[in-house]
Amino acid sequence: ALEGVNLEANGEEQKGLPVGVGSVAAGGRYDELVGNFIGPTGPKGKEKRQDVPCVGVSFGIERLFAIMEAKMQIEQMQVRTTETQVFIASAQKNLLRERMKLCGQLWDGGFKVEMAYKANPKLLTQLQYCEDRLIPLVLIVGERELQEGVVKLRNVKTREEQGNMSMSKSSYTQYNRKNWEDADFPILCQTCLGSNPYLRM
């Protein structure tokens, strides 16, 4: 049982927050609690319970998560469930091998890349996958893009697309991965894919 001064933390009520959970943390001294578990000590016939000074605190994890979920719903916040930075998508069939090679090129550049492993996934399904998981960039390749040495990039959040971007120039030879989100699409792709044979045909 708690002894002495007890401390308790309660969540503040916020306007518009539908969750009232009360106490979210409590703590204090638990001197007798440990002694109850370690058993008595001392000479036979004169055993005494040992007092062990200690303090402790407990948190209501479920209550804290309930508050966080309610705030996220009010603020319409979304949580990314993946660290993927770029998704490689195809607009036509029979491009699985090409998508895999592009993934490998970006992996070698240190980027977190993902693709659909079905042989012929639908483009709309691939784009919806990225929107659901908040993947920021989609690199779309098709037969025409491969033949012309160009690539199409899509900003998932704004749905803005930049097509027919030539990948034959390799003027951007170095790139700081830590700032990749602040870079323009051409810099990102020319840096990582400029030497890819599929984009120099």
Automatic annotation (TrEMBL):
Keywords: Aminoacyl-tRNA synthetase, ATP-binding, Ligase, Nucleotide-binding, Protein biosynthesis
EC identifiers of the protein: 6.1.1.21
A GO molecular-function annotation: ATP binding
Matching SUPFAM superfamilies: Class II aaRS ABD-related (SSF52954), Class II aaRS and biotin synthetases (SSF55681)
Keyword Aminoacyl-tRNA synthetase belongs to the record: yes
Anticodon-binding domain ranges (all copies): 85-169
Reaction(s) catalysed (UniProt annotation): tRNA(His) + L-histidine + ATP = L-histidyl-tRNA(His) + AMP + diphosphate + H(+)
CC terms in the record's Gene Ontology section: cytosol; mitochondrion
InterPro entries found in the cross-reference section: aa-tRNA-synth_II/BPL/LPL, Anticodon-bd, Anticodon-bd_dom_sf, HisRS_anticodon
GO terms for biological process, alphabetical: histidyl-tRNA aminoacylation; mitochondrial translation; nematode larval development
Organism superkingdom: Eukaryota
Similarity comment: family membership: Belongs to the class-II aminoacyl-tRNA synthetase family.
Name of the protein described by the UniProt record: histidine--tRNA ligase
